[in-house]
Amino acid sequence: MTTNGDIGGFDAGGKIVKMEVDYSTTCDEKIPMWKSWASKGRVQEAIDQLLSLEKQTRTGADMASTSRILMAIVQIFYEAKNWTALNDHIVLLSKRRSQLKQAVVRMVQECCTYVDKTPDKETKIKLIETLRTITEGKIYVEVERARLTHILAKIREEEGNVAEAAKIIQELQVETYGSMDKREKVELILEQMRLCLAIKDYIRTQIISKKINTKFFEEEDTQKLKEKFYRLMIAVDQHNGSYLSVCRHFRALGTAGGSDALIGSVVFLILAPYDNEQADLTHRLNEDKELDKLPEYKQLLGLFINPEIIRWNSLCTNYEKMLKSTHFFDSADEKGQERWNDLKNRVVEHNIRIMSMYYTRITLRRMSELLGLGAAEAEEALSQLVVSGVVRAKIDRPAGIVHFRFTEGGRTTHVGADGGELHALWTTPEGSRLSIGCHRKPSRVGFLSSCPARSQLAAAGWSKRS
Known about the structure:
Organism: Eumeta variegata
Pfam families: PCI, PSMD12-CSN4_N
Helix content: 55-70%
Number of helices: 22
Radius of gyration: 37 Å
Largest sheet: 4 strands, antiparallel
Distance between the termini: 105 Å
Number of strands: 8
Keywords: Proteasome
Shape: rod-shaped
Protein name: 26S proteasome non-ATPase regulatory subunit 12
């Protein structure tokens, strides 16, 4: 036993404790002797001696010696197969006054190696619960606690209690663990997602997924984790009906996802409502060389790219059998039937967009014929596209005419009942000159009243707005 001024370690409160006495020589001499006593049946006598020396090393702030003693105590109980005494002394040693943190860490790490060596499941669970109790709220053993919690969640899942397993593993805030390896963090977060998804807690699964930075999957040897993550996200967004997100997840799987991922990309892309992002992704997917290996799906995608009306009956004849052979349109599944109805809606929306490109106005009856819908259904579909901003149109219900807006010469024009005359006025050379004249800065207040375009507008039947 010697004295020196080295730093001994940290106490339970996190304060640096200066080592007052070095007990390493004493430990080298006594610990092997007391272990031999225990092996000969003198377990309690050996433990009493170790506890007495532990008090001295702890008060002397000798971290290394205290760690050795704590490990010796748990090793003796493990070798004696006295699991009850082991659990009791784990709690006792961790709660001793001014116990050194590093000593507790070493003891917990040693005990974690015993978890898989327990004789039965009940003993295993008791040991895990004991270790989880003493590690709760302690940052310096957060990694060990996370691993123990994961093991306990697996046990509950194997018992069929998935809800309890999900509840247990959700206790972990893995993303805040600074001492844990990044890969292990991702693995635990994926387990949290998987168990939440198993109990159909889609909202919590979505929230947990945001804890993973997808840039992690750009690193080497992360392919399996990447595939697991995107498969889970596909399940979540399929349930939520976020078709474009599902398509992006399939695309993220890349060639590792195989032909199923490519088929999923096409299917959910054409199911997604039209917008700029969907249109851009459609063209990029169409240029993918891998899609050439699936000519039927490439042709199907091409239908939604070509500016031509799609006949629903023709699409069903050519592609219904192929599509319904996939699990995406399984008729036995409620979601599968819902997707088939959404596909029909996407065809209707595509056709209305094409009409808005070729027609300035069309009767509602003729539109209904082209869409293969009743007048009320066609009007409802058109209204939804107008509200979402995909097309610009107005319906003249008394006349039964749909008027589309279009852009020409940088000016958006709405062609109404008398709009043709105004359009002709602004597109003729004379009208253009009148337009320039009307937009010059007036030199007097009455300029507009004398503007030559005013009489032209009046002649066309347009009166001054009140």
